[in-house]
Description:
The chain is an alpha/beta fold and about 210 residues long. About 40% of the residues lie in helices and about 10% in strands. It is built from 6 helices and 5 strands, in the order H-H-E-H-E-E-E-H-E-H-H. A 5-stranded mixed sheet has the order 1-2-3-4-5, sandwiched between helices. Strand 3 and strand 4 form a beta hairpin. The radius of gyration is 17 Å and the shape is globular. The mean pLDDT is about 90.
Amino acid sequence: MVVMKEDIDTLKNDWLTDNSISFWEEYLEREFLTRYKNANIVLLRPSMSFMLMQTPNPLTLLDALPNFKRTTHIFLPINDCKNVNQAEGGSHWSLLLVSVLDAVAFHYDSLQPANHTEAEHATAKLSQLLKRPLRFVDLTDSPRQENSSDCGVFVCIQMRHLLLKKLLMAQAKDKISMSMAGKTVDAVQGRKEMLRIIEGFRKEGERRRS
């Protein structure tokens, strides 16, 4: 994953780009998910989530999307952009976590109910793709952002918490709560941490090339 200057700039104090969220998903996969060989969890990229939402028949995307046959959970960043011709469009991010095992789609929106319609739409499309009904649950007790630009950071931090502290820590037969009630998201520290991680990878790349 190549992180551009524009992505770095938005991580400092602006609305996160698709690429920034994609980087974070790749980071979680490489640094954590690879340690759990039996985990069948998919972190769908923002571009794939958007494509799924905009395609009339999601079954036509089977070749472009991951194979979900053994998947237990799917994370989808949800964007409110409706213009397929606009790069980096939209004005708000939220997170959809689909438990394929339980046939439930949990929606985490830091400006709830801003992306309610989009998340419901994504759930319906994924239901068509999986060929099974999914129950949509809007988690109204999710952490709330305090400005208009931290939504993408909330998506990234909540994604990590749900993945590392809930899904990957649970035993096969455990019933776990997917609520984020009481969880605090420090967006300022989240931005700083993401920038530190990117800088760490940059320095590691320089060392390898030298």
